[in-house]
Write a structure and sequence with these properties.
binds adenosine-5'-triphosphate; 2 domains; six-stranded mixed β-sheet; P-loop_NTPase; 27% strand; four-stranded antiparallel β-sheet; Rossmann fold; alpha/beta; ATP binding
């Protein structure tokens, strides 16, 4: 399998007043094409810092990130990033927010942009909401719109930072299922950050657990059969084994 995303010896240090804060130290990760990798870690262990580096949004203090064999030197239209917080533009309606990656990519006619955005809004269950502004949508609908916007540019790699963390349990399950439907068969590579073990095991085919400063304390394949349903999973011995192992790794990583 080919590695799509490769991080080597990544260290990120922030300057704060007169001292330096190390958020990530000597981090290495290789992500295979078409895989769904979930990254699990306690708050503050460097997950967002890692994703920002993988997205090319921030520069590492040391080390390198390569995407499709080329060093990443800044944001790349082929890498979609769904952050924890809403980044929809409040002055654009939903349709025009979703069209944005196509405008950035260029060379796509307005009619085609509208058609693509409308099809994506339909896929994420937002039919008829294209003319609404972000403030007129619920939190869950804004997440769906953000998901559609990320997909509009047809990125081959998707980075997601606790995208459903703030939603109620029911909506979260719906969006997890929707994401899997969109991903399966797409060939896209996903790196999905969460602090929820169940979510990580439900979605991924590989789970990476980070401890303090992004130290990798566990890295395992998830061979649970798809489609996966939470209720059935909870009584699956392999799920129970993985859950126990990952909980122990999380605990070890924070000590
Ligand atoms: N811009 C910044 N300036 C200074 N320190 C920062 C900055 N960004 C992150 N940090 C620090 O780096 C560490 C890792 O932060 P990061 O946001 O990557 O963690 P996280 O695992 O994503 O946390 P959470 O799950 O709470 O989002 C923290 O100690 C944080 O305070």
């Amino acid at each position: 399998m080919t590695a799509v995303l490769q991080a080597e010896r990544l260290t990120k240090q922030f300057a704060k007043d007169d001292s330096a804060i190390v958020a990530l130290r000597d981090f290495a990760l290789s992500v295979e094409e078409g895989s769904f990798v979930t990254v699990l870690g306690r708050s503050g262990c460097g997950k967002s810092t890692m994703l920002n580096l993988l997205a090319g949004l921030t520069e590492p203090t040391e080390g390198t990130v390569s995407h499709r064999g080329k060093p990443l030197t800044g944001p790349d239209i082929d890498i979609g990033y769904l952050t924890q917080s809403d980044t929809l533009m409040p002055w654009r309606d939903v349709q025009r927010n979703v069209e944005m990656p196509l405008e950035i990519r260029g060379g796509v006619r307005a009619k085609e942009r509208r058609r693509t955005a409308a099809a994506l809004l339909n896929r994420v269950g937002l039919d008829g909401f294209g003319k609404h502004y972000p403030r007129e949508l619920s939190g869950g609908m804004r997440r769906r719109a953000s998901l559609a916007r990320m997909l509009a540019g047809s990125p081959s790699t998707l980075l997601m930072d606790e995208p459903f963390g703030a939603l109620d349990a029911q909506l979260r399950t719906e969006l997890q299922e929707e994401l899997l439907r969109l991903w399966q068969g797409s060939g896209q590579t996903v790196v999905f950050v969460t602090h929820d073990i169940e979510e990580a095991l439900l979605l991924g085919d590989r789970i990476v657990v980070l401890g303090a400063l992004g130290r990798i304390v566990a890295d395992e394949r998830i061979t649970l059969q798809r489609p996966r349903h939470v209720d059935a999973l909870r009584v699956d011995p392999e799920f129970v084994r993985l859950h126990t192992t990952m909980a122990a790794a999380l605990k070890e990583g924070s000590s």
